[in-house]
Known about the structure:
The structure is a single chain. The protein is of the alpha/beta class. The chain is built from six helices and six strands; from the N terminus they run βββαβααβααβα. The chain has helices at about 30-40, 60-65, 85-95, 105-110, 115-125, 150-165, and strands at about 1-10, 10-20, 20-30, 50, 100-105, 140. The strands form two sheets. The chain has a four-stranded mixed sheet. The protein has a two-stranded parallel sheet with strand order 5-6. A hairpin with a 2-residue loop joins strand 2 (about 10-20) and strand 3 (about 20-30). It starts with a strand and ends with a helix. The protein binds a DNA duplex through helix 4 and helix 5.
Amino acid sequence: MICYSIGSCALGQLLVAWSDRGICAVGLADTPDQLILSLQANFADHSLQNIDPVDSPYFSTVHRFIEAPSSSPPDLPLDLMGTEFQRRVWRALMEIQPGNTVTYSALAQKIGNPSAVRAVANACGANRIATLVPCHRVVRSDGATGGYRWGSARKQTLLAREATTPDH
DNA sequence: AAGCCCATCCGAA
DNA sequence: TTCGGATGGGCTT
């Protein structure tokens, strides 16, 4: 069973989903329908239950974090559902500080698999937990921002917000 | 087990 | 600036 709540935030509609082990998805989209559809696609083998944001154990904290882009991430339990390789990549992502960026190839080096650049990019794209697992801080080595599951416009917005607001 | 997809990178034209 | 090949993990058949 996976529960989820949806509400508005500065970047559009915000979805926070959680299992009994912690947050398993954070999504951004233009409409609630898009969020629900992708949630269903991602967790086709689970039953889903919509919860009012007011009654969610996580929604308000995640929402607050997204509204204050450069603050340090809240210490909430995450349910990282993926392969060993993906979890290695995701944990490395969580070490990137706000305002900093890393290239896909540097990230590949960091996890000790320097030639697996595209595999690392795929693992970033497989991340379902927006902003809490900061895959938006990974950019291409040619200076382009690269792709983003929730829209490259949002990736650029996130990076701009973190770059312009000091962390203390 | 074999094929295809991919949010990359680098060198060559 | 574009283009092709190398590349490795994940998913489907």
